[in-house]
């Protein structure tokens, strides 16, 4: 089963979700991420994922295209903008929405901003773990 995480710029939340998916998913679940736009990877997202033992530094910020949509069995939008602008999905492609706040909009000291990124990382991990559990049940039948 192929799962695509979709965000506005594919720089933070969807990148984290892809990383968690690859880390937690196993061989029968494939994960990718893309954005409505391409903003490049956020160094803070890479740093907090590394703290949790997940290396996302080699992932790329990718723009959504028809090939990715055709590949995906399930699309998970991780922000309201992506949910509103998600194109019509091919028949048989399931969609769900996770309304996650954008850590890149956090303000305050560097420590406070990093804490926001860590909170987002942990929320994304929780949601991906739950998704992986549900999908394994679907795949195994």
TrEMBL record:
Q: What are the start and end residues of every segment in region (Disordered)?
A: 93-113
Please name the GO terms that the record assigns under molecular function.
Answer: arsenate reductase (thioredoxin) activity; protein tyrosine phosphatase activity
Q: Looking at the keywords, is Chaperone present?
A: no
Give the domain of life.
Bacteria
Keywords (alphabetical) are: Arsenical resistance, Cytoplasm, Disulfide bond, Oxidoreductase, Redox-active center
Q: What region holds the Phosphotyrosine protein phosphatase I domain?
A: 1-134
What InterPro entries does the record tag this protein with? Arsenate_reductase_ArsC (IPR014064), Ptyr_pPase (IPR023485), Ptyr_pPase_sf (IPR036196)
**CDD domains to which the protein is assigned, alphabetical:** LMWP_ArsC
Listed under GO biological process in this entry are:
response to arsenic-containing substance
Show the SMART domains listed in the entry. Answer: LMWPc
One short Pfam name that applies is LMWPc
Its recorded name reads Arsenate reductase
Question: From which organism does this entry originate?
Answer: Thiohalorhabdus denitrificans
């Amino acid at each position: 089963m192929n799962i695509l995480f979709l965000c506005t710029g594919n720089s933070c939340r969807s990148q984290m979700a892809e990383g968690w998916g690859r880390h937690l998913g196993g061989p029968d679940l494939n994960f990718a991420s893309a954005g409505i736009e391409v903003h490049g990877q956020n160094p803070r997202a890479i740093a907090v994922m590394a703290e949790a033992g997940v290396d996302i530094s080699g992932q790329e910020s990718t723009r959504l295209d028809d090939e990715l949509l055709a590949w995906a069995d399930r699309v998970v939008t991780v922000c309201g903008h992506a949910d509103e602008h998600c194109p019509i999905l091919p028949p048989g492609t399931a969609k769900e929405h996770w309304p996650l706040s954008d850590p890149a909009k956090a303000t305050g000291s560097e420590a406070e901003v990093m804490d926001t990124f860590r909170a987002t990382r942990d929320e994304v991990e929780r949601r991906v773990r739950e998704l992986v559990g549900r999908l394994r049940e679907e795949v195994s039948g």
